[in-house]
Write a structure and sequence with these properties.
The protein is mainly alpha-helical and 75 residues long. Helices cover 64% and strands 0% of the residues. The protein has a domain of 47 residues. 12% of the residues are buried.
Length: 75
């Protein structure tokens, strides 16, 4: 996940305003990834997955991406 996110950031060619929003979404996804990896002692790894799914769903709220489907979260 970290390698994919790094590639997204490195190859991002957005205008400044959407680029800033994308980086906020990516930072939140990174926090979920860290929790899943056990790097956040305050958050159980399973909750990191929930957090990451919620943050990925925010992408659809900020960007018009044809075919975007949110992750359905039963938590």
């Amino acid at each position: 996940m970290e390698a994919e996110v790094g590639g997204i950031v490195a190859n991002c060619r957005l205008e400044p305003k959407p680029d800033a929003m994308l980086r906020l979404v990516i930072a939140d996804i990174g926090a979920g990834t860290d929790a899943m990896a056990g790097k956040d002692a305050k958050t159980r790894p399973a909750l990191g997955l929930v957090k990451m799914a919620e943050n990925l769903n925010q992408y659809g709220s900020h960007f018009d991406y044809p075919g975007f489907e949110p992750i359905h979260n039963a938590h």
